[in-house]
Amino acid sequence: MSKTGRLSLLAIAAVALFEVGTPVAAEAQSVMKMASATINDVQHEWQKVFAEELAARVGDQVTVEIYPASQLGTIPRMAEGVLLGTIESFITPTAFLVGAEPKFKVFDAPGLFDSPEHLGRTIHDPAYRDHLETMALDKGFRVIGAIYNSPFVVLTKKPAPKKAIGANPLPLPLSEVVPALQSGNIDGMLAGMPILVAFKYYDIAKPVTDLQFSMIVSVNIVNEAWFQSQSPEVQAAIREAGRAAEEKVLQWGIDNVARTNAVWLEKGGEIYELSPEDQARMTEVFKTVSDRILSADAEVAGEYETLLSVVNASR
Q1: Going by DSSP bridges, is the β-strand pair 215-223/141-156 parallel, antiparallel, or unpaired?
Q2: Domain regions of the chain by residue span
Q3: φ, ψ for residue 207 (rounded to 5)?
Q4: Which residue ranges of the chain lie beneath pLDDT 50?
Q5: Which pLDDT belongs to residue 176?
Q6: Could you give the CA distance from residue 88 to residue 271 in angstroms, rounded to a whole number?
Q7: For 28-313, which CATH class?
Q8: Is-contact 246 145, C-beta < 8 A?
Q9: Could you tell me if 207 and 125 are in contact, meaning their C-beta atoms sit under 8 angstroms apart?
């Protein structure tokens, strides 16, 4: 064999070895940072169940990283992070998204839901759930999870007076509420019992008044541009995993409210309720104010009517 022939054979062999020995580049993984202001509550539980459900569908194509307890910033900064695309996912009560999408204020209307189960039937109604998912697409985010959180309660440093009083609402990041209560800069807060227990507010104040006027709906949002950058398979898996997780954690959330109520009492806390007469009078006043607020914006008013139709059909 000529020298040229030997060189040609060596070249062919080298190319063959290169093709066999060089691994094919693996499909790039996507990272999904999931933020929350809370820990060890139903929001955190939803994140964990979602991660399991997603992994069961797409394996390691998406790497889920969960950051509870405001590890990625205050609530406004985490919401802003999703809008800007620096954070892929954030779970929070709807009230904290009203600044980005005013239609979310409809979930805070008093007297909407008869029970946690009724809330679940309403927001998980298939047609309404599809509507909720895309409610804020024009604002740059998509709802992939919607869950019952807990009833609203009022924590005060002294037992709340059973009469109408003036109040000045002050939005504060969760991390700033404790020092504000300790210093006396605020007299109380509106929250859910699981939050009060998780962050040990019983060490600061004891009286809680259960007004029984509204239940907290939490939603998990994702940046829409990030969602659209995923493959169709991953997009479908994210949507499916979110809805599977919200169904699975409903009872967990109901049980957690009962558990945290018991813990609050065990730690020396107090839980007060209004008399039936006071409850009815308060509900009437709240509804009058709420109707006025929700009707002030035509788009919000239309969204409220849409929600009410599903609420009534789900009773």
Answers
A1: antiparallel
A2: 28-313
A3: -75, 130
A4: 1-27
A5: 87
A6: 38
A7: alpha beta
A8: yes
A9: no
